[in-house]
């Protein structure tokens, strides 16, 4: 459970010492620290991501960095005290694992906060939430045994492998949903598919189902995949659904892409257990291209909460559904010009004997 989506949306309202700005289904709101703790106590999630005073969209100045540290420190102390503190009765203490945020700053800039995490707050935290890959190598030894959740927004599986090699235990993967919305099916295995050892041409990480080449292709998305989509449907069917803009297309793609990522992480864990992770990563890098394919089709229409706030002079995210009926206007004008229409008033018509003008 966290206060923000991933990737987070830049909010025009500023954070305050007692709240953070968030984007909700009813617009921008301030989430009070006390409200967040109340939600944790009611919902009882497995993992809680602590509130952090993050600056989104630009690099904070020195004075702002000081505020970030002070507020995040206060948020963490406040939440852990209410959830797990010594004054909380044993039977009412939260069972949720609290992941304390580590700000995307140098350790020297948040040294007091980090010292408290190592000492006074250490009994109350069960993990760390980090917001950039560079923070993974800066975790001190007293906190080294805690699981690390990384919000680095990796763009490819190669980025995931790099973050795992640096020490990440949990990651968020926004590109999986982005690919599904774009009609792109992931197609990779770790460390490599069962192919000859000599690789002349790297394999693609995914393929675009908007391509006309899939119009009559009745093969599964992946012959080795055991997901619901691959066992029950084929490429031509999903291509048809995308063309018809049926929501089922994106649902089936998301099922498949989730399964690919589940298998990918299971293989990573097995590789680490065998002690071959570094060699397997190098094999994966040689086997697959470095980037995912560029989207060519249009995803599902974005609405409301799905739309990040836009700034000035930015293009429309959704194509205009309706436009000016210029061609219809021209045709209407042509049809009107073919009718006999008088070019004079009532008096002129009377002179020509068309009718009598009534005078009251």
UniProtKB/TrEMBL annotation:
Which InterPro entries does the record cross-reference, listed alphabetically?
Answer: Queuine_tRNA-ribosyltrfase, TGT-like_sf, tRNA_ribo_trans-like
In terms of PANTHER family, this protein maps to: QUEUINE TRNA-RIBOSYLTRANSFERASE ACCESSORY SUBUNIT 2 (PTHR46064:SF1)
Q: What spans are recorded as compositionally biased (Basic and acidic residues)?
A: 349-360
- Protein name per Swiss-Prot or TrEMBL: tRNA-guanine transglycosylase family protein
Q: Region Disordered: start and end of each range?
A: 291-321, 333-360
Q: List GO BP terms, alphabetically.
A: tRNA modification
Offer one Pfam family short name for this entry.
TGT
- Per UniProt, residues of the tRNA-guanine(15) transglycosylase-like domain are 16-288
């Amino acid at each position: 459970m966290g206060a923000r989506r991933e990737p987070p949306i830049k909010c025009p309202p500023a954070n305050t010492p007692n709240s953070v700005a968030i984007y909700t289904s009813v617009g921008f709101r301030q989430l009070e620290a006390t409200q967040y703790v109340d939600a944790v106590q009611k919902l009882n999630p497995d993992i809680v991501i602590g509130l952090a005073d993050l600056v989104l969209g630009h690099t904070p100045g020195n004075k702002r960095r000081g505020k970030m540290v002070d507020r995040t420190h206060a948020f963490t102390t406040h939440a852990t005290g209410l959830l797990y503190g010594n004054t909380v009765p044993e039977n009412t203490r939260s069972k949720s694992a609290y992941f304390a945020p580590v700000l995307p700053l140098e350790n020297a800039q948040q040294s007091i906060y980090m010292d408290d995490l190592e000492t006074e707050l250490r009994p109350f935290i069960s993990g760390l939430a980090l917001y950039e890959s560079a923070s993974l190598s800066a975790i001190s030894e007293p906190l080294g045994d805690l699981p690390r959740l990384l919000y680095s927004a990796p763009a490819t599986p190669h980025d995931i492998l790099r973050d795992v090699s640096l020490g990440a235990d949990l990651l968020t993967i926004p590109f999986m949903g982005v690919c599904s919305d774009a009609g792109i099916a992931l197609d990779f295995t770790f460390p490599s598919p069962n192919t000859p050892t000599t690789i002349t041409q790297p394999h693609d990480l995914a393929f675009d189902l908007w391509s006309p080449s899939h119009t009559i292709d009745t093969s599964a998305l992946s012959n080795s995949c055991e997901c619901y989509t691959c066992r029950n449907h084929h490429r031509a069917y999903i291509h048809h659904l995308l063309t018809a803009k049926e929501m089922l297309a994106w649902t089936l793609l998301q099922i498949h892409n989730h399964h690919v990522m589940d298998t990918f992480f299971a293989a990573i864990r097995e590789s680490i257990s065998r002690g071959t992770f570094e060699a397997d990563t190098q094999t994966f890098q040689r086997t697959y291209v470095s980037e995912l394919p560029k989207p060519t089709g249009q995803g599902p229409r974005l609405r409301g909460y799905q739309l990040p706030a836009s700034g000035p002079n930015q293009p429309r995210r959704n194509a205009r559904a309706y436009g000016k009926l210029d061609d219809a206007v021209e045709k209407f004008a042509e049809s009107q010009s073919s009718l006999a229409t008088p070019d004079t008033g009532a008096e002129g018509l009377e002179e020509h004997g068309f009718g009598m003008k009534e005078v009251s």
